[in-house]
Design brief:
This protein has helices at residues 23-28, 40-45, 63-72, 78-90, 92-119, 124-138, 165-176, 179-182, 211-236; strands at residues 10-11, 48-51, 54-58, 141-146, 149-154, 185-187, 196-198. By secondary structure, the chain is of the alpha+beta class. Strands 1-5-4 form a three-stranded antiparallel β-sheet, with no helix packed on it. A two-stranded antiparallel sheet has the order 2-3. The protein has a two-stranded antiparallel ribbon with strand order 6-7. A hairpin with a 2-residue loop joins strand 2 (48-51) and strand 3. The N and C termini lie far apart (79 Å).
């Protein structure tokens, strides 16, 4: 008999461990978002394009965008997504507050993981701030019966619009406590990107979140830079 999951409960198991999508998965994914971080919390950070620590382009301007991202990340199923979408229409102020909180948590995670990727450490103040969010999120964890035994679920109410971010916070805590995975944490070399990812390549030399995007842009810049220098050299002669 297949597992059943009541609407309003998010299975904790969906947020655990590295998220690895093949190239075919990325191209055929039902959402327009790119899931390239290798870990749920990093995919969440990557829902903005960053200039330093500032958001240069927002990919989650509305709560409905957060729902689409969460469904594409397999964090919620279609019934939960439909229910939350309906709530954005009936409770617009609550939806606005929820997406605002998601943005603030995302900035915190961006600062923590960027510092870890670049310097290998994180600040005590940032960690204390994260732990406050983590403590609040885990208040909604419950152990429940399933056909295959007991498991963790998020038992927050179906109508709680903050429920999407809680498994993201748990995912971030999992990564912070995993020294092996943290050693693979990288910051994309692309300009105006700032995305984070786990380098799961055999060579451990991955530089770009996506070679087809940031990698190709860098190639184009180098090409035009070479042409510019060649032109200046010929003019100078």
């Amino acid at each position: 008999m297949a597992d059943s999951q009541p609407v309003g409960q998010i299975d904790l198991r969906k947020s655990l461990g590295p998220r690895r999508l093949t190239l075919n998965d990325q191209l055929t994914h039902p959402s327009s978002f790119r899931y390239l971080g290798g870990w749920l919390a990093l995919d969440f950070v990557n829902t903005a394009e960053w200039q330093g620590m500032e958001c240069a382009r927002e990919l989650l301007p509305e709560y409905s965008d957060l729902v689409v991202w969460a469904e594409g990340a397999d964090l919620i199923a279609a019934p939960e997504a439909h229910s939350l979408m309906h709530s954005t229409l009936t409770r617009p102020k609550s939806a606005s507050r929820a997406v605002g909180e998601a943005h603030r948590i995302r900035v915190l995670l961006k600062r923590i993981f960027t510092r870890l990727a670049v310097h290998g450490t994180t600040g005590r103040g940032q960690l204390a701030q994260f732990n406050r969010h983590f403590g609040a999120a885990t208040e909604e964890l419950r152990v429940v019966h399933r056909d295959d035994g007991l498991c963790w679920v998020w038992s927050d109410r179906e109508t709680d619009l903050r429920r999407i971010v809680r498994p993201v916070i748990w995912s971030a805590a999992e990564l912070l406590a995993d020294s092996t995975m943290l050693s693979k944490l990288r910051l994309c070399d692309g300009r105006m990107c700032g995305w984070l990812f786990l380098d799961l390549s055999r060579s451990q030399m991955r530089r770009w979140c996506d070679m087809r995007v940031c990698g190709n842009r860098a190639k184009v810049r180098r090409y035009y830079e070479r042409r510019r220098k060649t032109h200046q050299s010929l003019v100078g002669d």
